Amino acid sequence: MAKVKSLADLQKLKADLQSKVNIREKGDTAENLVQVKVAMATCGIASGAKQVMEFLIDELEKRNIEAVVTQTGCMGYCYAEPTIEVKLPNQDPVVFGEVNNTKADEIIEKYIKTGELVDGIIPQNYETIDD
Amino acid sequence: MAKYKSHLLICGGTGCKASASDAIESNLNKELVEKGLEEEVQVVMTGCFGFCEKGPIVKVLPDNTFYTQVKPEDAGEIIAEHVVKGRKVERLLYTDPETKKDISDSKHMGFYKKQLRIALRNCGFINPESIDESIARDGYAALAKVLGEMTPEEAVQLIMDSGLRGRGGGGFPTGLKWKLTAQEKADQKYVVCNADEGDPGAFMDRSILEGDPHSVIESMAINAYCIGATKGLVYIRAEYPLAIERLKIALNQARDYGFLGKDILGTGFEFDIEIRYGAGAFVCGEETALIHSMEGERGEPTFKPPFPSVSGYLKKPTNVNNVETYANIPVIILKGAEWFSSIGSEKSKGTKVFALAGKINNVGLIEVPMGTTLREVIYEIGGGIKDGKKFKAVQTGGPSGGCLTEKHLDTPIDYDNLIACGSMMGSGGMIVMDEDDCMVSVAKFYLDFTVEESCGKCSPCRIGNKRLYEGLEKITQGKGSVDDLEKLRNLCGVIKDTSLCGLGQTSPNPVLSTMENFYDEYLEHVQDQKCCAGVCKDLMQYIIDNENCVGCTACARVCPVGAIAGERKGPHIIDPAICIKCGACIEKCKFNAISVQ
Description:
The structure holds two protein chains of two kinds. By secondary structure, chain A is of the alpha+beta class. Chain A has helices at 7-28, 42-46, 49-62, 101-114, and strands spanning 34-39, 67-72, 84-87, 94-96, 121-122. Chain A has four helices and five strands. Chain A has a five-stranded mixed beta sheet.
C-alpha cells in the first residue's frame, strides 16, 4: 500500500522529514544565520556547558530562530566558563562568559532577538584561521 | 527519533569507496558508540562531493569543516578532537596550494567557489539510499506539482521556456523533444533514461545516479506524464554496479511510497520504471543503437528519420533523455523557467557538469554555469596544471570532440562556442594535457578507442577509422610523410560526410582538431622524425654522454634487455637496435649522463 497518497500527504511528510537535513542546510548558509559556539573543553563541560548547549539548541528551535549551534574547543577563558560565542549575520562575534540557562535565556531574548548587549561580555583577543 | 547535533558526511562515490570510505564509516560509528555520542552525531554516507583528487572526504556539519584524504585510522582523532573537544584536526584540512594556508570551510576553497550545483544539488548532501532525505530536500515535490496543478502541455511549455538543452552531448532542446513525442498518437509510449556514459574519463551521470537517484526517477515520471507514457526504462551500463544498486534501492523505495505504480499521488496517473543493462558499448549511447540494444537486437544505429519520438522502443514513440538532463528537471519545475534561463549564456541555459581529469591539480566532478571560461575551470576550480608544468590543450567531448588550446582559454563554454572552436560539449569529460603530451599520440589514442567501439555496420566508420588509425601509427613511428597528412585530412572528411551515425560522423574530430591546432607537431613528426613531448618511443634515442659517464655500471645492471655495454670505470654505450626505450637507465643514472634525443 502506497504511503503517500496525495499532495497533502507529501507536504506533511516533507515537513516531518525536514529536520533530517536541517543541520546540513544550515551549514551551507551559516553566514546568514545566528551562529552560536559553545566552548566544550574539559573546563567548559565541568561547568555545565553541555546543559547550556542543549538548552540553546532546544530553545532556539522552540522560539523559531534559525541558528547553528556548534561546539568548539577551549576559548581560553577558563575562569568564566561556560563561555559561548554568538555571531549575528554580518556582525563581529561576541563572547559571553559564565553562561547558565538563565543567562542563555537572556542572551536569546535580548542579544539574539534585538541586538541589545547584555552583561558578561568578554572582549575578544585572538584571531582564528577562518578570519 | 534521535536528535542529532552534528552530522558527519562521508563521500560514498565509487572513487572514495575504493579508498575505504566504508571502513571510515564503520570506524566513525564505532568511535561514536565508544564515546556514547551515537545519539548526538549522525554518520551519513552520501554521493560524490566532486573533489575526487583529495578523497575520501569527510565533511562535518553544521560547521562545514571539510576533511580530505581521510584514512580509516583517522576516525578516532576526528571524533576525539573535533566532535568531543571541538578542535579541528588541522592535518586533515585542505591546504590552499597558493597561500599554503589551511582552509576548513569548503565554501572558501577555490574548487567550490565558482561552482553552482543544480544537477548535483544533492550529491554529497543526502544519503542516496534514503528516500526520506530526498523528500526533505523537495524530492517528488515537482512531480506532485506537475500532477496536481499542471496539464502536460503546460509542463512541456515550461521546460521549453527554460531553454534546457540535452546534456548528453548534442544539445537538442529538451522541451521540444518532449513536445514532439507528446504529439504522437499511440497506445503505448516510452520514456528512456540514457545512462550509457561511455566517454573515456567521464563520470557525471554515474555520480548523479550514485548520489541522487530519486531526482532521475522523479523526472522520468514527470516526463512520462508530459508525453503520455506509462512505462520507463533506464539503460545503464553493467559496469556501474554501485549506481545500479542505488538506483534499484531508490526504485523500490519510490514504489513503496507510491511515487511509482498505479494511481500516483491519488491522481490516477500510472508509471513504472525497469532497468536495462548495457554491456558497455560506446555506440549504444546513440539513441537508436540504445533502443535496439534494449529490444535485444544488436546495438547498431539505424538511419534517422524516423526519430525515436515517432518510432522508438518496440516501434512506439519514445523519449530518450540523458541522466544529467533529467536531474535538472525537478528544480526547473519548482523554481520556474525564468529562474533557470537567467543562468548561463545566451543560447545555453543553466549549468553543466564536467568531469575534470588528466594533468590537472584538482581532478574531480564540477558543475558551473554555462558561459564560464575554460581558464576559470582549469585554473581557478581545477587549481592549474600538475607539477607546475605548462598547459598545452584540453580535450572536451571525448572521442567525438576536439582539443582546445591556449587561445581558447577565455572562450565562454557553451554548446555553440565549443563547436565554433572545433570541439563539442559532449557529455562533459574534460581531459587536460600538458607539455609532456604528444598531440599525435592523443589523436591516436582516441582513434584506437573509436576503432574498438565502431559497431561495424557502415564501411566509412568500420574501415575508414581503421585506416585513420594506421596513418597516425605510421606518423608516430616516424614513417610518415607530408603527403600522408593531406591524405589523412581527406579521409577525415569522407568519414564525417558518409558515416551513418554520430559515432562515425564525429570520430575524425580529434585528428582534425589536433591537426588544426598543432600542425607543427605533425610536421615535426614526419619531417624531422622528432616528438618534442618525448612520447613517441620510435622517434627517441637514448644516448650516454661519455664526458659525464663515470662507468659505474648502474645503467647496465638495470637495463632489462641488456642493451648497455661498457667496461667498469669506462664509458658505456647503448645499442639502439636492442634498446626498448623504457627509461629505466635514466632513472638510475646519478651523473646525468643519459639523455633522450
